[in-house]
Write a structure and sequence with these properties.
heterodimer; A: Glutaredoxin; four-stranded mixed beta sheet; 7 helices; 4 strands; about 65% helix; B: alpha/beta; eight-stranded mixed beta sheet; 12 helices; transmembrane (chain A); transmembrane helix (chain A); Thioredoxin-like fold domain-containing protein (chain A); membrane (chain A)
Amino acid sequence: MDNKFDWKKYLIVFFITAGLFATAYYLSEYFGGRKVEELKSIQDKIAIDILSSETQFSLLSELSCKNISDSVFSGQLGELGNKLEWSQNNLGATEEVSYLRKYYSLLQIKDYLLTKKISSRCGTKASFILYFYTTAENCSECERESLVLTSLRTKYPELRVYSFDYSTELGAVEAMLKIYKIKDTELPALVIDDDVLTGFHGIEELEFMVKKSFKLQETKPLEENKKSAS
Amino acid sequence: MVAIPSLMFYVFIFLSVYVQVFFLVTFLENRKHILIRNGKMKLSRYPKVTIVVPCFNEEHTVYKTIRSLLYLNYPKDKLQLFLVDDGSTDGTWNIIRKFEKYPNIKIFKKENGGKYTALNIGLEHLETEFFGGLDADSFADPEALVRIMSYFEKDASIMAVAPSVTVYNPRNFIQNVQKAEYHMGVYLKQMLGFLGAINVTPGPLTIFRKKVFDDLGPYKHGHNTEDMEIAYRMQKNHYKIAHCNDAYVYTSTPGTVKKLYRQRLRWIYGFINNTFDYRGVLLKKKYGNFALFTLPTGIISIFSVGYLFGRIVYNIGDFLYSRLIEFQVVGFHFGREVNTFDPFFFNIQMSLFLVVFVYLIVLFAMIFGRRMSDGKWRFSPAMLYFFPVFSIIAPFWIMKAIWNTALSKVPAWR
């Protein structure tokens, strides 16, 4: 009989298969690493953009608003947010990704502060929503709220939505949570013009508030915003 | 949370890669032994062979089947044909009767009792050293028999030789896809032949030594897959089965998905139940690669197809659910989703490489199988359709076969 059990062959095939697995693993790690690199470079670019805008702003603060170029609004922040979320879901919540997410939160806060400053001083049309959600537990309301905000943002390009994961361990985010008194039991939470809204809010309601916020700016660009900020 | 399903996913991928690598290594080991002969050949001795054609309502094909046997390149006085009408209700009997006058043809008519009973009629009247069947929907290549017989001449320990079965005259999409599948089958069968691990001796023109039936008894019902049961029985008793890759038999294949479903349901049901009947053989070292490779591979493929199907259904459900939520929350926004493609979002997972690897080996199997059966190195688009078509429809017959097994309901022939 030549059909005797050839255990060596079974073993060799096992090692070949294991080798293929290892190769596939390293390849996927390699491409995953490249993605993280890409994220880093986008973040660096945004950081430079913000720093440049800040510098520009302080340089020109004594001068007129005409000189504020459009480039101060970093359009890549939204794109970065999407890519980070995708990475979290597909590459796994690795240390690198969570580090990048922290950095992203910080960039968002800086962008928020700067844009708000420019808008209140120069009266550029802008509206802000701070959005707090959680990924630590299954939050179906958060998922729905995210969809609403994505849809709103496409409709109103001047609307700037900044989203923060409640569980981000970052002093700046924790400070924001304290300022607006946001508790983890009341997520999702939204801040529009310093009003705190908790739980799910539908698109009609938010759209109404966003429109109101734009209108306030059109009538009294300077004073109104200063008042609400104080 | 998702750890167990994704662990299972990797286990199944590992096993599929293992199986494909095993076949590939077998191919590389034996590639020099793959014989592809052209033209007529001669044997030093022509032993007498009996071929039984069991027929049940085959009026459209049986004439051609018998003709193909009469055209075989084999001495007429060494070839005995038995035509058995298994209680046909159409014109089959009238066609068979026309062949009554041939000196080497005997005809039989009996009450319908299933294919295995028709074959057993042939065994009862068997007077020759070799025995084979040819399904009445299949046609033998003129050189098929003589090439098969050359294997017996070469090696006295070979007890049965299976031919290369390919698709006869594929006319539509579903038959072309099956053609690609049969080409792969030719390759895999050849590799299993090298491993001594063949688990089916197909109805179309497998030739046996008479000794097989003298020692092991006649055909059994075998859950309507008698050609699988006899192969299992032979493996259990260490009877060697070879595959003759250049003996071609063309078989009619189901032309509709529904008919294909019925055929495959019967095959898979047969596999599950014959494997269950012969479970004592499974993973026993003394039964060789048949017990350690062929049967486990079949079992694994049933589980992995079931698992993958569950996964796909879950993913589709998940996608639809998220769309439903989106619709509830923000309504329909046409054209909103038009994003420019960013390669960043292309998910390069580990499994992607492995799946591509498995597909490439399978593609190679089809192309090489075609080389072995058509003599041509050629790619056909059906080889690519094969993957999506079979991964969509195969889970249905597999799950139905499991279901039928659970309820012990034997699927009908057609």
